[in-house]
Every structure is written in C-alpha cells, then in structure tokens.
Amino acid sequence: MRNVAIIGAGMAGLAAAERLRAAGHQTVLFEKSRGFGGRMANRRSGDFQFDHGAQYFTARGAEFFRKITEWQTQGLVAEWGPGSYVGRPGMTAPARAMAKNHTCVTEALVTRLERSEHGWHVFDENGSINAPGNGTYDGVILAVPAPQAEPLARSAKAALPQIAQARYAPCIALMLAYEPETRASADHWMRPDDSIIGWIARNSSKPGRPHDTQTWVVHARADWSRQFIDQDPRVSGEALHAHFRALTGIDAEPLYFAAHRWRYALVEQEVGMPCLFDEATMIGACGDWCLGARVEAAFDSGRAMGETMAEALAEILA
Ligand SMILES: Cc1cc2nc3c(=O)[nH]c(=O)nc-3n(C[C@H](O)[C@H](O)[C@H](O)COP(=O)(O)OP(=O)(O)OC[C@H]3O[C@@H](n4cnc5c(N)ncnc54)[C@H](O)[C@@H]3O)c2cc1C
Would the pTM count as exceeding 0.85? Predict the structure, then answer.
C-alpha cells in the first residue's frame, strides 16, 4: 500500500481518490475550501440556496452514466430534464458523499511541494500541513484548475509543460431570491439571445429544492465576464440584474441578491489528454482542463489519473 496526496477535492480529485483506493492505496485530499465539489458548488444563505457553479451534468460515456445511476440509487442525484442531472438537495451532494470515503484536510491552501529522502511533503504558506498519517507521500496529484496547478508543478520541478496549453473563460454569476408566487416568463431555464446574459435558471425548479422561495441563478457571457472580472461584483451584479428583469419580466425587489466571480469557470481550450504524469517525480495533474468544460470530463480525467498513478505505484512495489 502506498500513500498519495491529492490537491483539490472537486470531481477530478475525488474520482482519482476513488480509483486509487480501489487499487488498495491510501490517499489524503487537501482542499482549500471548507467543503467539497469545487465548481459543483452550492451557496446557502438562511432559507435560500443556489447552485451558482455547474448547473446540471450529462453523461456521454458509459462510465459516468454508471456513476450517475449509482448516485441516483443513493438519492444523491435526480433528473432535472431528460438526460440532465443535478445533485440533490444541492449540486455538491455527490462530491460530499464521495469525500466521506477518504481522508480529507479542508481549509488547506497548498502553496508548494517539497521532496525529501522519505517522499513528498505538502506545504501551505505557514509551513507543512498537518494531516493524518506520516505526512510523506509517494506521489502527488494536482486536481486543481490549470493556472493553479502550474505553480505547484513548478515548485516540485515536475515536467508537465502541457498544463500551460489550457485556457479558461471566467463567469460572473448572480443569485436572486423572490417570494414563491412571483410571476416570471421562464419556467425552468433559458439561454437568452442577449449580449450580457448567457444562462438563466430557476434554481427552485430543480428536484429536491425548497419550494417556499423562488430562487434564480444567472450566468454572464464569457466576453462580458472577462471585462468585469476584476471589478466589484456588486456593480456587475446590478448590470446583470437589469438585464434579468427585462428578460424574465420580474420587477419585484429580490429578497436576496449576491454576485460571485468564477475566475476559472469553463475550459475554452483543453489539453486533449486524459491526464498528465511525470514518472520521474511521481507528480500527476488532472481536471476538466484535460478533456473539456464538463463535470463528466473532470470525472474521466480524475479516473484516468488514479489509474495512471496506481500503475506507476505498482511498478515501484514490484
Ligand atoms: C459558472 C459555471 C457553470 C458551469 N456549468 C456547467 C454545466 O452546466 N455542466 C457541466 O457539466 N459543467 C459545468 N461547469 C463546469 C464544471 O463545474 C467543471 O468542469 C467541474 O466541476 C470541474 O471539476 P474539477 O475537479 O476539474 O475542478 P474544480 O471543481 O475546480 O475542483 C478543484 C478544487 O481544487 C481546490 N483548489 C484549488 N487550488 C487549490 C490549492 N492550491 N490547494 C488546495 N485546494 C485547491 C478548489 O477549491 C476546488 O475545490 C460549470 C462551471 C462553472 C464555474
């Protein structure tokens, strides 16, 4: 049995952990946030909740479809529309369930990796991060967006030059809540023909969400988000809100209003390989940026990474 550190507990990191565990190895996941799922995110505020990152997921391949069926059986996922699935009661549900099977260190922002004669060590800006086990790892998986993987790979002197090929589009998301009986021109979701807004979803129409409030999530288009990503999100949120009013006919004052900036939202240019691995350092990297802008791509990339790392560890053990 070997020990692997996984940086990032989004779908890719969790899928890699699952695969390594199935091969009989130990893993420790380091996650900078308090929760799991990364961009499969859910914000709660009082009675209101919003999936402000990924909206739904689909399965093109048999492997991810099998996983979705397993989640459905466990009540963690439900169909929102034909072939479109959502976590239940929020988008994070599948990731939270996956994380239960693994050792996870949360609120741990990894800033560098260092190798000693015993193996790899994981550091935050204050020094070595306390984790269960002996704190040394035979391999490390970077399961974070490409721009965040790059400095970590550099700190480990890992030869993973393809990371630099990946490109992301940002997205500014707006969250709104209204009284349940508020009248609107959209039932579930719309992709409007609009210069600013690319997506509007009635979050409360998703299965398993509370129906005593009406909640909405709005996503700005990539080009517009790029212009406003460094500005105060309240200002861009107001601009989105004005367009939202015009598109949905909702004139009421919202009971809740918040905007969120996703700097690395959707992959615009993927690497085109399932995962990256440097055998000399035993450092690998995975995520949606390897295969495409979808939850399924993150899952497939994470699984491929877990398999590649397991094969390399088997060679060391042989
Ligand atoms: C606005 C938006 C809308 C989307 N809509 C859809 C959709 O409708 N359908 C769909 O299929 N996909 C959608 N996506 C894309 C989907 O969410 C992603 O493809 C997928 O969730 C990526 O998973 P991942 O594990 O590769 O990365 P992430 O989910 O980003 O996970 C990476 C994790 O690493 C952590 N992390 C980062 N740096 C560090 C560090 N230094 N130390 C420790 N932890 C770190 C992060 O906190 C995060 O939890 C959307 C994304 C966004 C943002």
Answer: yes
